[in-house]
Amino acid sequence: MDRNTTFPTVIAHRGASGSAPENSLSALSLAADQGAKAVEIDVNISSDGIAYVHHDERLERCTDGTGLLHETPSTQLDALHASAEFEGFENEPLPRLETVIQLVLQRGMALNLEIKPPRGRAHITTEAICSVLEDKWPASATLVLSSFDQDALKHAMQIAPALPRALLVGPIPTDWQAGMHAVGASNLHCSVKGFDAVQARVLQDAGHGVYCYTANNDDTAIGLLDAGADGVFTDWPGRLLAALEAQRRSRPHA
Ligand code: G3P
Ligand code: MG
């Protein structure tokens, strides 16, 4: 059975990261509280191969740790706080992927997991992540793996072909067919500025979903959806969902 790769139109980027520390358990819970049906997270691995949800290679911006996440053992990472300097979240842990999966499933959300391997670590990072997903993520729940690193996606295709993939790009490339084919991608995730309605339509006609990151301005996000994007990533899912609902009420027959 093919897995479902159709995402809701609003995807909480790093959770509800406008209102809580990005990629934290609080940001993911808050996204669900705000009505988001899908979240995006970034994942890297520790020096001993444990997958953590964290955007940067370095720990300084979002945690009270220092150095490179992939050079730090899980015993140290588990002791960190990841408040990203948000007030009121001082005890936020740096979450393991396993813990995040549990929460995302409990809250009934779809998951876009972005693989963030440091240079030269695409395979080892992808292997650790796929192993957790194969163990913990049910085939019936919606999941897409994405990455800017094509080696990571190609490796995922080889070792865990059943996990759906999305090619992550800036602008939609003119030769998108080659890129999508090389990694066996179902969906394409492009930047807001790189969205092109005509290209998107061609991709969609070929059976692919097209999603745009990161649309933190609601008018921009609504414009992208009106222009044909299948979905948008936002740090402010509750606000965008409310704006879409207001639009729906004002245009009931649109
Ligand atoms: O996955 C979409 C988006 O998250 C890619 O950029 O830097 O926010 O991970 P970044
Ligand atoms: Mg990301």
Please give a structural write-up.
Helices cover 35% and strands 17% of the residues. It has a single domain (10-250), classed as TIM Barrel, CATH 3.20.20. The model has no long low-confidence stretch (mean pLDDT 96). Strand 1, helix 1 and strand 2 form a beta-alpha-beta unit. It is built from nine helices and nine strands. It has 254 residues and is α/β, with parallel strands linked by helices. It is globular, with a radius of gyration of 18 Å. Bound molecules: SN-glycerol-3-phosphate and magnesium ion. Residues 40, 42, 114 line the site of magnesium ion.
What keyword list fits this structure?
254 residues, alpha/beta, TIM Barrel, 8-stranded parallel barrel, 9 strands, 35% helix, binds SN-glycerol-3-phosphate, binds magnesium ion
What is the global morphology? globular
- CATH secondary-structure class: Alpha Beta
Order of helices and strands: EHEEHHEHEHEHEHEHEH
Main structural class: alpha/beta
Helix content: 25-40%
CATH architecture: Alpha-Beta Barrel
Number of domains: 1
List the ligand species. Answer: SN-glycerol-3-phosphate, magnesium ion
Distance between the termini: 34 Å
Largest sheet: 8 strands, parallel, barrel
Total of DSSP H or I helical runs spanning 4+ residues:
9
Q: What percentage of amino acids are in beta strands?
A: 15-25%
CATH superfamily: Phosphatidylinositol (PI) phosphodiesterase
**Could you name the ranges where pLDDT drops below 50 across 5 or more consecutive residues?**
none
Biggest β-sheet: strands ordered side by side in the sheet: 1-2-4-5-6-7-8-9
Gyration radius over CA: 18 Å
Mean pLDDT: 96
Determine the CATH topology: TIM Barrel
Count every beta strand, where a strand is a DSSP E run of 2 or more residues: 9
